## 1
Amino acid sequence: MDTTLLQDYITYGRETFQPILNEESRQKLIQYYVKMRTVGSGRGQVSAYPRQLESLIRLAEGHAKMRYSNVVEMIDVDEAWRLYREALKQSATDPLSGKIDIGILTTGLSSAARQRRHDLAKHLEKVISKQKTSTLDYQILLNETRLAFEFQVTTAMYDDALKEVQDSGKIMVKGRLIHII
């Protein structure tokens, strides 16, 4: 399709049509939203926020405009759901578990990665609490920490865990030294 023709088609749809939801479409959107919310509820996570419902509505309205319709129908809602699910698969799939994790979008980390960071921080707190000196060498503690875990501890993971411990007020990191408070 010619780019100019496509631009004209989209512009006409945007300017001419202002679709509204019919009752059937409203109910289906609510069902999809409830379905999104229940996905994470079994794991104690919030898996959908009102923003996701708003996104579904905008996608459905956009699809209706592309069909040159002033009414959002079931076909629009179903296509919005399909697009949403596909975008979610591409942007929020936890590489460790293969499951969709909304936390990746909100925090940048999957729940598994957050748990690993927390486990690292707890390990560091335990090691630090047993120290007889007031300072530790950053690199030595990193090497010891790597030996303590079965998974690969990257420097970034270690730094994040150190920051968590520092935020709790137990240490202060200055350069290559960790000062115990």
## 2
Amino acid sequence: MDLVYFHVAVEPKPPSTRNRHIPQPLSDLIMRLLQKGAEHRYQTAHGVLADIDELLGRWIAGLKLDFLPFVLGESDHRTNLVLPTYPFGRVHELGVLRETCETAFRKGGGLHVIMLKGRSGIGKTKLLLEVRRIACLKRAIFGSAKFDQFKRDLPFSAYISILRSLVNVRIFLTPDLML
């Protein structure tokens, strides 16, 4: 579980901080390859190869890589549209959610519930994924569910779904009604 946590939540240290002999442009290239968000990584193999070729060419020519201006990704151009992974246009809402999470973490444990409401297609799931990422950074237990419009006759169905996702068991309300 720790491996998954580190993969999702922890930013790796740049190679140049671990070994001072690694040139900064090479360290930056490696860090770009390791970015968490897909929109921040290289978008094409051609872009990676172009930057590696440029660094290798400078190194073979005997040039100091740390002192020459070098911009990563100048040849890295996608041919198709890629949507961002962050909630676009939701800066205010994201700030409110982050502050709510930080307040909950400062209180030191306990159960905290955040409910998002709104019409379908407005980005609630993207906001929820950001809350999940924040919770993962703090090693908090996170559960989520949607209120299903087709289960209106079943009271507290979303809460039951959350509990089910957290404990991964079947909950029996009555002998004839199993969720």
## 3
Amino acid sequence: MKILDNTIIKICKETSFALTGSDRRIFQAKITNEYLEGNQNRAESVFGWGRNTVKLGLKELETGYTCYVEVHERGKKKTEEKLPNIEQDIKAVVEPSSQVDPKFRTSLTYTKITAKAVRKALLDFKGYTDQELPTERTISNILNRLGYTLKRVQKTKPKKNQRDRCDFQKRT
């Protein structure tokens, strides 16, 4: 094992951070072979690199084949990808109760129906099950992405009766 001082360790960390994908793994494998006798556990403790990444880099270096890690396939899929017809079904439920901005300032459409009511309508009329349908918050997000803005409807206030007001003033 060759001697590593702090400046070499720092330069190796910065260079590794600047690289991506297979280039990073190959660099880490070469450094591990050269300075740490191919021990990925030591690479983890000295440089802070993931030992599985270094292990994959060592295999790539040994075989000459590049492994393609499909990072874009990770994570949770959007609801629209899982249920392709949900946008059309939500539009069918929301369209009858929506209206354009009264002052025509924006292209958003206001709807008086809530996300909870949309979810219930999808369950009742569109044949979705409770398990496959997303939560109210997710339906609210989908409505926003479709260009609908959920507004609270202001409750009607009773009109003030002018006669009662005048009688009150006369009594006092």
